[in-house]
């Protein structure tokens, strides 16, 4: 297969880069973006890199009305030797296409979008922050653009990739959070869109998050929508528990997002010879394990925070303090290992990192 | 309260209107649109009518990523005496604010948006088609616009109202449809967003609809997401059945949209002295009633079609032909009565219609 051709139009006016210590998550964007169009006649076409700019859409564009929208999140890191590294980007585009299938959006060619992503990151390489814990957040997304109010899959789409330099998720070091088990609102149900990375799932989650924050919790722990009994996810992350030496995480059941960090964590734990099981976990089991002094650790996994330790779980009127509210050993080791591999500081035995420079030089 | 002030900028170039017999649903838009902005500092502000035009948005605008989007659908009709009538528009804005609450979008002032809607319809009055069954479809909607990738409610929104002249839903007269009971995909679950009119619900419904159409069915009949046993909605309409003389419709349970046509139908049936009950209806009950020869009618209710008779229900391998595949008496009477009231041809005993001319003259 020949390499996809991506046209490039460079920006003439470079924006000012944010100061390293003032980086926030997802507020500043780089000088360029990737864009590609889809029409029923021509399929996906015209992949191009252009200056970062507003997009102009008809008010009847279907995404505003019927929400056909999928996205991904990954990061580019600068190693201490100045190498630009991506972490398992092919997994993101594999998942993007799964989300596309669920949302009736035409699949993209993974080679084209990965090449576009690499060239974009290469062009905006100076935007990758260098400080500990910082990175360049990458947001590929697809939206339906046909101006039509019929409830049907759109015949026109745009795919974009935008980049945002982000600060350390843990400004004062990795810190356990307090989360509330959600008993009223439901994030997703089997047969719904819970395992697709689509806008509507996030819209549906805001209310519970708002209520939880107003009560002083950082995140909500979602239960299944059918029995409201089994653990699903925490906020927008997957969740792991260590119960009496066994590490467990909810099995992928159709309503849980198949996290790439989740997958990496499972691989690492197995490599370390630790017992890790994907299965149903009820909230009752957690409460009982806590009573018995066997709930040893809990942590979320996701691209933004990598590993987010849970120090306290609230279920109805009960408070379950985990590991004295401290970051557990497993969470610490996972965080250090994954971020070490991502930054090129530790050996990449799984072949997870993809270097951007090398590839683009071979164009 | 003083009347809200809505600034008006008229279009200088009028578009060509579509021919009456070529009207489709939701493909053509009028010369003007209503728009209003929200910021955390200023609240909802600057309501205005401007020429219909594309909107320019940052690629990071939150609606593209996290789907905070709510909408409404209603119609304006031209009576035989040339009066412009809206049908229960205050109910739409009441429901819009309920959807806003669920999606963490700030409420709008119903008086302002209703006044904006009336002025907009008045300005684009020439676009209201006159032929039997035609009308001007009205689409108010709100989208989140803040350029930010954090998962949180947006601090910026736009509300728009756009207008589209639409043809008769039944080109060859009211015609019963064949629908399949959906057993794999789920539209919504209690605790989710099923009772809000938000984009994600429609995105989630596309796949099942695509599968149903490929098998020759017009629509899917949704079951509840928990037990997959109880009837919820048909396609994007509410559903009614006549079983052994009793008219029944699923009770509002948190995952069913509170349809305005549904509400009007219940009022009319009661006015006619007919028995109408809102309750749980299982698919097993329908199958049994059909076997016993007691499933006498089925019809969907919604703004687009008003009343959509169901001639055949498919459940697994069973086919339930209803009323010999013909439109039932109740469906016919409801369709004639509601469209008659909407067009000003029948007495409006409930005070459902709102005349646009009169109101705007009093400005």
TrEMBL record, chains A, B:
The keyword RNA-binding does not apply. CDD domains: BCAT_beta_family. GO terms for molecular function: branched-chain-amino-acid transaminase activity. Transmembrane segments: none annotated. InterPro entries: Aminotrans_IV, Aminotrans_IV_CS, Aminotransferase-like, B_amino_transII, BCAT-like_C, BCAT-like_N, BCAT_family. It is an enzyme of class 2 (transferase). The modification N6-(pyridoxal phosphate)lysine is found at residue 197. Its cofactor is pyridoxal 5'-phosphate. GO terms for biological process: amino acid biosynthetic process; branched-chain amino acid biosynthetic process. Belongs to the class-IV pyridoxal-phosphate-dependent aminotransferase family. This is Branched-chain-amino-acid aminotransferase. The lineage of its organism: Bacteria, Bacillati, Bacillota, Bacilli, Bacillales.
């Amino acid at each position: 297969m020949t390499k996809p051709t991506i046209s490039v139009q460079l920006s003439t006016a470079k924006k000012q880069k944010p100061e390293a210590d003032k980086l926030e998550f997802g507020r500043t964007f780089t000088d360029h973006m990737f864009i590609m169009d889809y029409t029923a006649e021509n399929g996906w076409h015209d992949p191009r890199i252009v200056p970062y700019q507003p997009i102009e859409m008809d008010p009847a564009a279907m995404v505003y009305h019927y929400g056909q929208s999928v996205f991904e999140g990954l990061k580019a890191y600068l190693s201490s030797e100045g190498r630009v590294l991506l972490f398992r980007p092919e997994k993101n585009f594999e998942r993007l296409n799964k989300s596309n299938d669920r949302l009736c959006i035409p699949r993209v060619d993974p080679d084209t979008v990965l090449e576009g992503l690499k060239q974009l990151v290469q062009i905006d390489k100076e935007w990758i922050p260098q400080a500990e814990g910082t990175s360049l957040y990458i947001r590929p997304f697809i939206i339906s653009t046909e101006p039509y109010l019929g409830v049907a899959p759109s015949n026109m789409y745009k795919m974009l990739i935008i980049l945002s330099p982000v600060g350390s998720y843990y400004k004062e070091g990795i810190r356990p959070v307090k989360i509330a088990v959600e008993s009223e609102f439901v994030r997703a149900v089997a047969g719904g869109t819970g395992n697709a990375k689509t806008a509507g799932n996030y819209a549906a989650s805001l209310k519970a998050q708002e209520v939880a924050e107003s009560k002083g919790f950082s995140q909500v722990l979602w239960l299944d929508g059918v029995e409201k009994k089994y653990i699903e996810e925490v906020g927008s992350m997957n969740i792991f528990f260590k119960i009496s030496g066994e590490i467990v995480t909810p099995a992928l059941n159709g309503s849980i997002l198949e996290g790439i960090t989740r997958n990496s964590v499972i691989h690492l734990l197995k490599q370390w010879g630790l017992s890790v099981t994907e299965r149903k976990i009820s909230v009752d089991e957690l409460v009982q394990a806590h009573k018995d002094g066997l709930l040893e650790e809990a942590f979320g996994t996701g691209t933004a925070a990598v590993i987010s330790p849970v120090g306290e779980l609230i279920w109805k009127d009960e408070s379950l303090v985990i590991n004295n509210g401290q970051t557990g050993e497993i969470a610490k080791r996972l965080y250090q290992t994954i971020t070490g591999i991502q930054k090129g500081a530790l050996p990449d035995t799984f072949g997870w990192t993809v270097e951007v420079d090398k590839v683009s030089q071979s164009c």
